[in-house]
Amino acid sequence: MSGLVVIGASYAGIEAALTAREAGYAEPVIVVAEETLLPYQRPPLSKEFLLDQVNAESLILCEEAVFASRRIELLLGHRVVAIDRHAARVALADGAVLDFDRLVIATGSRARRIAIRGAELDGVCYLRSVGDAADLKARLGRASEIVIVGGGFIGLEVASSAARLGKRVTVIEAASRLLERAVSPVVSCFLLDIHTRAGVAVKLGTSVSAMVGDGGRVVAVELDGGVRLGTDLVVVGIGGIPNHELAAAAGLGCANGIVVDQHGRTAREGIYAAGDCTTHFNRFAEDWIRLESVQHAQDQGRTVGLAIAERHEPYNSVPRFWSDQHDLKLQIVGHGARRDRIVIRGSIEAGRFSVFNYRRGRLVGVDSINNPGDQMVARRLIAVGISPTPSQAEDSSCDLRSLLKAGSQGGCVAGAAATPPP
């Protein structure tokens, strides 16, 4: 028996399987996943789950009945060890073999491990799965001094949760500002102030050179200047690595992720990929990029599902992301990494504002703090290539929605054409 085999049961894989079936794909569908749990939400793991506001059961994305009603077979607790693209089959760790006509690789990403002395000590933790989160929650209950290595989304969200639990928290970040690759300097400074006010100590431009242990457990971190910080628990959040090894071993193109086109297709006919494990040319970034977000995984998974059902709709979603820290909501739309000008809309002092990022006169991204309205209109503006002038963006009395009705203002730029990834 052959049909569609999906490797991975998180956002991208599940969306691809469900969409393919709902779009008319009639052949057998099998989803294989190494984890034994039903597909679950991951964003709450660093926030509500650690604060004991939700449990593992409440995180379930889809109940078994949903898959059964759509004739989708779940093979949980099974690991794929090889893809034979010539024979169109995948091999499982238990010796079983699954034939396929269509294959979706949605293997996600894993936490990047820190490569320093003492990294293997007990009490050095990472957060990626619900199992990681359950272990971290138990350890937080026993710890009082927490060191977080990395001032990215995971690190700052865990810092916020730990501070709410009354822990003494120190964040160590090698870059000169928080979320350096994701947000504008204005937002970085605002977040630094918010965390500091909440009692979190933040050390920027600082690296951890070693973990110090006693009896096999971490008791301190050593900084690059030789200073030691005592700690009961270390949480490492220094980014993710795409799980593309299966694809690479099968001879599929990989460059910081599995290379896919606008329909999620690899270079091998019948094999697709979606989610954190992929790299694609993004017209909003004007470059080949790898995204890690729920929105990207779901939207690209949907694109793949439609393609499998012979309904080809290119992936054309504006990148977006959100993060809850302390009492604020950070939302990001677009891709502002290569900004050359910013303007601020709203009030930083009031804690409700947006930073509009421009590149060569074109709006490329908006970072918002507690300002969902700006995010909604910015997403639509960026999607259709309408750029408010900087003075319009800065003027809170200017209704940016009117630009959508007018259909013009500032330039409309379609974005650069794709060239092969490096």
CATH architecture label name of the largest domain: 3-Layer(bba) Sandwich
What's the CATH first level of the largest domain? Alpha Beta
Radius of gyration using CA atoms only: 22 Å
Low-confidence stretches: 408-420
Helix content: 10-25%
Give the number of domains. 3
CATH fold-level topology of the largest domain: FAD/NAD(P)-binding domain
Helices and strands: which structural class?
alpha/beta
Counted by DSSP, the helix tally is: 10
Shape label? globular
Strand order of the largest sheet: 3-2-1-7-19
Strand runs, count:
26
Residues in β-strands, percent: 25-35%
Distance between the termini: 38 Å
Please name the fourth-level CATH homologous superfamily of the largest domain: FAD/NAD(P)-binding domain
Mean pLDDT: 95
What does this protein look like?
- The protein is of the alpha/beta class and 422 residues long.
- The protein contains ten helices and 26 strands.
- The protein has a five-stranded parallel sheet. Strands 9-16-10-11-12 form a five-stranded parallel sheet, with helices on one face. Strands 22-23-26-25-24 form a five-stranded antiparallel sheet, with helices on both faces.
- β22 and β23 form a beta hairpin.
- The radius of gyration is 22 Å and the shape is globular.
- Mean pLDDT is 95; it is low at 408-420.
